[in-house]
Amino acid sequence: MKYLLICFGMFWGFSMISQNKEVLYGLEEVPQSMLLNPGSRISYKKHFGIPFFSQIHVNGGSSGVSAYDIFKDSGGDINDRIQNKIAELKNTDFFTATQQLDILSFGWKNKKEYYFSGGVYQEFDFIFYFPKDIALLAWEGNANYIGKEFDLGELSTQGDLLMVYHLGVNKKLTNKLTLGFRAKIYSSLFSFRSISNKGTFVTRLSETDNNTYEHIINNADLTVNTSGIASLSDMGNSSQVVQKVLGRAFFGGNVGLGADIGATYEINEKWLASASVLDVGAIFHKKDIESYKISGDYTLDGIELLFPPLGNGDSTPPYYDDLIDDIEEAFPVDTIYNSYTQMRPLKLYASIKYNFGKAIGGSGTCNCLKMGENQEFNQSVGFQYYSMFRPKGPQMAATLFYYRRFSDYISVKATYTADSYSFTNIGLGFVANLGKVNFYLTADNLLWYQNIAKAKSVSLQLGFNIIFNEE
Amino acid sequence: MKKKLPLLLLFIAVILFFSACIKDTDFNQTDDIEVTPILELDFLFSNISSQTFTDIGVNNLVLSDTTDFSFLNDDFTVDNLERAEFYFKNTNSMPVNFEMKFQFLDENNEEHYLITIPITSGELNNPVVSEYIENIETDGIVSLTMADKVVLSVEASSIVDNIEGTLKLQSKATYYLKIIQ
Question: What number is the ipTM of this complex?
Answer without folding.
Answer: 0.89
